[in-house]
Every structure is written in structure tokens, then in C-alpha cells.
Amino acid sequence: MLAQVIAKNALALGAFAIITTGAISATYLGTKDRIELEQRAAQARALTEIIHDDQHDNSMLDDTILIDDQELLGLDHPKQAFIARQQGQFVATIIPATAHDGYSGDIQLITGVYADGTIAGVRVLVHNETPGLGDKADRKKSDWVDGFVGRSLSNPSIERWSVKKDKGEFDQFTGATITPRAITHAVARSLQYFEAHREQFTADSATVKEQP
């Protein structure tokens, strides 16, 4: 009798699991394309916040270079750098980086760099910094990251690419130093990576297509 009850319950649980899995799979397959389109649109909006639509005529989402660098960019796995072109000529790139020395862990950011090595813009994408303090690095919370726009490795010199508390050029947040220090250093390293790989980024679109 007990065995029959157990078998009956097992069959019921099995049937429930099959139906639930089927429903989840059907929902995923039915919305997969729409989700991918929305993710692509969101990604495009993030890129054009830094490199505006009137500054390029290509699709940055489709013009990319796969980069993998731990030392300067702090990347744990390969990521795409996006390229902006005007009539096939390099205008700017958007480079991903991870700062591993944030107050509450990793900070993921992107840095837009023009052909002349000046910064087009910086956006913090993912962080776990303290609300009300470290989260001011988020462009939605404050315009602090705009302080990097127009800067380069010669403006200021690399020795002054730090916060003012460390005798550098850049402001820190009121009550928070670790977060702006980590981001400032990560942005400087992104500029150094661009300069070290300038030819790869600035190659014309025909050359890029020939790369493996």
C-alpha cells in the first residue's frame, strides 16, 4: 500500500516537473528573439550615450574587436570593444574594463576614446558600491564621470591620474575615496591600453574584416 502511494506521488511529481519544464521552455523560445532585440537596443543606447549618432555612420554593435587583457583592463574573459567609424574611417572606440579594487568588489565600466587619444565619455555599468556614497560613479546618480571627458594621457600626465587626496587631478566623492580612486586608475589604464594597441583599433574597416 505504502509503495503504491509513493509511486503515485512520484508519478505526480514527475508529471508536474515535465509540464513546468515544458512551459518554461515554451515561454523562453517564444520570447527569445524579443529579449535579444531589447538587449541589443539597450546596448546601442549605452554606446550612443558616449559616441553620439551624428559622430559615426556605422553600426558599433556590428563593428567590434575582441580583446582580452588582465593587466591593464582587468578582464577575466574576452570582451568586445566597439568601433565608431565615419565613411570607413576610425572615429572612436569604446573599451570595456573591470576595476577589481572597488570598495565593495568589482566595478565594470566602459571608456570611449577618440582617435586623438582623448576621452569621449565614461560609464559605470555594474557595481556594488555603497548607496549614497560610492554609487555617485553611476551617471544616473551624478555627473562625476563627466570629469574625464576631454582628458588624455597627457592631460594630465600619468603621474596625476588619481584623485586629489592622492595628489592627483580628479575630485573624489564627499565621504568616499576608494571608489573614485579605483575608477580613475581603471580609466587611465584603458587609455594606456588604447595607446599600446592603437593600430589594431584604428585599422580601416577593410583591414579589420581580414583579421581572423
Automatic annotation (TrEMBL):
Superkingdom to which the source organism belongs: Bacteria
Subcellular location: Cell inner membrane
Record's keyword terms, sorted: Cell inner membrane, Cell membrane, Electron transport, Flavoprotein, FMN, Membrane, Phosphoprotein, Translocase, Transmembrane, Transmembrane helix, Transport
Keyword Phosphoprotein tagged: yes
Modified residues (FMN phosphoryl threonine): T177
GO cellular component, one term: plasma membrane
Role, per record: Part of a membrane-bound complex that couples electron transfer with translocation of ions across the membrane.
UniProt-recorded name of the protein: Ion-translocating oxidoreductase complex subunit G
Species of origin: Sinobacterium caligoides
Lineage: Bacteria, Pseudomonadati, Pseudomonadota, Gammaproteobacteria, Cellvibrionales
